[in-house]
Amino acid sequence: MGDLYILNTRCQLTDTIKDTFEKNGFTVKVSTESGVTDENLRGAKGFNAVCIFVNKKISAEQVEILKENGNKLILHCSAGFDNSPTVELKEAGISAARVPSYSPGSIAEYAVTQIMALAKNTHMSYVMTKKADFEITNMQCLLLENKICGVIGTGLIGKKCATKISGLVEKVLCFDVFQDNEWIKTIPNAEYADMDTLLRNSDFISIHVPLLPQTHHLINEEAFAKMKNDVVLVNTSRGEIVHIPSLIKALEAKKLWGVALDVFEGEKKYIFHDKSKAGFRDDPDLARLSQFEHVILSSHIAFYTDQAVEQITAKTIENYMAFVGKGPKDEKAFIC
Question: Residue 51: beta bridge partners?
Fold first, then answer.
């Protein structure tokens, strides 16, 4: 029996996880295709664990294949685990583990970077000057130091974002169901506020909440209606937090200054793939979204730094070591 079957992540994690496991004496196989087809999963037959990243999803129906394979563990090399059926895995006697946190500063930095890019029209200037177009009529920027930034969610990443942006703006408004009143005192110009207050007063909004039933389509038509005009919205959490049709409607009404989505609903068939030949022809909403000049779509890369890859790799093998009895078990990492 082998140790680890990696559903090809299509990023550096595949190589680093494979190399690290093999250096520790474990046998590893990488899938030849990147999708999670039934055939691809059957390639994991005889392996203890299956490694999955955020751009993959195992369906409830496919748990039967995992049972037939003799797989005992799903290793999520991510913090989120909504891409595997936890209930069905538990019923089948298959464990699952995740990486509870990794380089929160990487994602926070990316969020701040996108706020800056949109506020300063960096993305527009880059495209225009490549064509020798140095016209500035429509290039007026936003000053940050007299603005308010709203941070939705103050987990590890949200806290990092609030801390980093606090030196650039006048005030930071934070919202979280579970407030950390001791932490907020460490940022002189930050305070907690209810969601309505944050939406109505923020010039920049950065989203850092997990995907839960309560947060699904949290940013919808009603939320956009409450926002200030010319707001900048950034989402680096989960795509399903923002309702795309409502976002398009707000953009068409010129409600927003700009939007940066490192995650978006329906992203799994796009991220880490070159879809330039087909484009968005099967997704009219994404096709429309991509036409707006002040919308930046990226490939779920906010996490993708040297430190993050190192930490994800280290925690993934730590979880496997714990599962096979060669190390302590982190209860926060094991989902079932």
Answer: 6, 75
Between the alpha carbon of residue 47 and those of residues 63, 85, 280, the distances in Å are 14, 19, 37
Active-site residues, by number, are 238, 267, 300
CA 74, CA 96: separation in Å to the nearest integer? Answer: 5
At residue 32, the pLDDT reads 87
Strand partners, 174: 151, 192
Output the CA angle 253-259-260, nearest 5 degrees.
160
Task: Return the number of other C-beta atoms located less than 10 Å from residue 127's C-beta.
Answer: 11
- pLDDT for 147-177, tens place per residue? 999 999 999 999 999 999 999 999 999 999 9
Q: Euclidean distance between the first and final Cα of the chain, in Å?
A: 22
**Structure-block tokens of residue 68:** 């037939």
Helices (H) and strands (E) in the chain, counts: 13, 12
Residue 210 structure tokens: 């997990």
Amino acid in position 308: A
The answer to whether the Cα torsion of 115, 241, 285, 275 is positive or negative is: positive
- Residues (pLDDT < 70) of the chain are none
Show the tokens assigned to 246. 């409502």
The span from the CA of 108 to the CA of 98, in Å, is 20
**CA dist list (Å): 67 to 41, 51, 71:** 11, 15, 6
In order, the DSSP letters of 8-35 are --SSHHHHHHHHHHHHTT--EEE-SSSS
pLDDT (0 to 100) of residue 217 = 98
pLDDT at site 80: 85
Q: What percent of the chain has pLDDT over 90?
A: 95
Size of the chain, expressed as the number of residues it contains: 336
Nearest-5° angle of CA 51, CA 331, CA 180? Answer: 110
Q: CA 220, CA 262: separation in Å to the nearest integer?
A: 18
